[in-house]
Design goal:
By secondary structure, the protein is an alpha/beta fold. The protein contains six helices and 15 strands.
């Protein structure tokens, strides 16, 4: 059965549960012979001013275009997962007010939106704008979530360490929660998502830019065969590779907002899950980009 929500007022929407239950949550959508459809956004960088431009991109316009394209896909997604840096620079309350307005068409179409936090977000302002005090919080001080469908699990982590500081960190409490969650969640193919990219040893004199406790993260992921991939954003790059030590698939999502190099695509990624695999497809905002339509397959069996 398709998801259905009762009508809600604008005030209820802003203060309602955008992030949904943090339980695990069980996703439902119309079945399709091509598999379950999920949509992956990252790095929207929305400012209070919807017309603000940075690095040659109008971030609000880009998010509007991506939202409109999702609504035209023709199959209702099980969810839109937005992987951090929802806000432009330092997570001002007004940034999230604009962000909420821009993704409201998804909510009005009964599509659930689930967010992680990045280094340009502010946890307090994010939670104040987009969750309710009544929402369950499985890990105090962090915004985490588990989604489970008939085919797969998503585990969403919170790598925000300091607002507007580049490096990220999960921390011991969250790593412990992740270990317990992977042991107890349904025995299905599982994708783990966090905003920050894996960070190897940092050469002397260099500043860290990714996830500081990456080694601890992958030591946990490697213990669970059901973990098939780690998905991240942060670097504004569409890329696919494998983690050298564990062989776990690594998926770097493109930004919705701006790119760091003119040759790189921005846009979003669709993810279709069947019993056999997860197929990711780049939907570049520039359909003439060489990588538009590029696909990556993650085997489930």
């Amino acid at each position: 059965m398709p998801i259905s929500f009762p009508p809600i007022s604008r005030r209820q929407w802003i203060k309602g549960s955008l992030a949904a239950a943090l339980a695990p949550h069980f996703a439902h959508a119309a079945s399709d012979p091509e598999g379950e459809l999920w949509v992956l956004f990252s790095d929207t960088h929305i400012a209070a001013d919807v017309k603000l431009e940075a690095r040659g991109a109008v971030m609000g316009e880009n998010l509007q275009r991506c939202v409109n394209q999702v609504l035209k896909i023709g199959q209702k997604p099980f969810g839109v997962l937005l992987n951090g840096d929802c806000a432009y620079l330092d997570g001002q309350q007004a940034d999230y007010d604009t962000f909420v307005k821009l993704i409201e068409p998804l909510r009005e179409s009964a599509i659930q939106v689930h967010c992680t936090l990045g280094n340009h977000d502010d946890r307090k302002h994010f939670i104040g704008a987009m969750t309710s005090p009544q929402d369950p919080r499985p890990l105090e001080g962090k915004h985490v979530e588990v989604l489970s469908s008939a085919t797969m699990n998503w585990v969403l982590l919170d790598s925000l360490h300091e607002v507007n500081k580049t490096p990220g960190e999960l921390g011991e409490l969250q790593l412990g929660w992740l270990a317990r969650t992977l042991s107890s969640c349904p025995d299905k193919p599982t994708i783990v998502m966090a905003h920050h990219n894996p960070q190897g040893p940092v050469p002397e004199g260099k500043k860290p830019s990714g996830m500081a406790d990456s080694d601890a993260l992958f030591a946990i992921l490697a213990k669970h065969k059901k973990v098939k991939a780690f998905v991240y954003g942060h670097t504004h790059t569409w890329e696919h590779k494998k983690h050298e030590a564990t062989g776990i698939q690594l998926i770097n999502l493109p930004p919705v907002a701006y790119v760091f190099g003119k040759e790189r695509p921005n846009g979003f990624v669709t993810a279709r899950a069947t019993a056999e695999k997860l197929t990711l497809e780049l939907r570049a905002l520039n359909p003439a980009h060489d990588q538009h339509g590029e696909k990556v397959e993650i085997p489930f069996v």
